[in-house]
Amino acid sequence: MVEVPAIPIAAIEPASAETLTVSGYGRTSTEWVPNRLHAAPFTVQEVDPELISIDGATADATICKGDAGGPVFRESNGDPQLVAINNTSWQKGCLGETATQDGATGTRVDDLADWIQENTPPGCNAAGWATGSQVSQVVQSGDYTGD
Questions:
Q1: Kind and range of the H or E element at 89?
Q2: Domain check: are 91 and 146 in the same one?
């Protein structure tokens, strides 16, 4: 198994005109199910207490179906920081879509670091993906209905 280090949550809120990277496994302009990670630069247009509005920083930057929930991150001194979670998109440039409006929103996470630490089961705070019994703890803590 490949260990993937965790990306720390940004402590500084995103700024208007800042360039961030959005990644995901969703559609592209040419593929329905690309089955590989892709990423593109986006520019912050507006920041409010819960969300950021972003537009593609390049002509081919798009967020499509299947990208929701993907990370929105920045580079700080060569290290990535999680700034937001991809939320919605107009789908401009996506395969099978005709939208002409650019843009997307991301749910900010810079104010959630303490809550995440408080609600993460012991042993799951280490860098990398949870494995073994840690996966069971994560699933149980997120299974609110007990089914």
A1: strand 79-89
A2: no
Instruction: Mark whether 79 and 48 lie in a shared domain.
Output: yes
Regions in the chain scoring below 70 on pLDDT? 1-2, 4, 122-147
Give the pLDDT confidence of 108-131 residue by residue, as tens digits: 998 887 887 788 776 564 444 343
Rounded CA-CA distance 4/56 in Å is 27
Has residue 44 been placed in a domain?
yes
Domain that holds residue 91: 19-111
Q: What's the predicted TM-score (pTM) here?
A: 0.77
Output the pLDDT for position 73.
95
Token pair, residue 25, equals 């496994």
28-44 pLDDT tens trace: 888 888 888 999 999 99
141 and 86 inside one domain: no
Is-contact 45 107, C-beta < 8 A? no
CATH of the domain at 24: 2.40.10.10
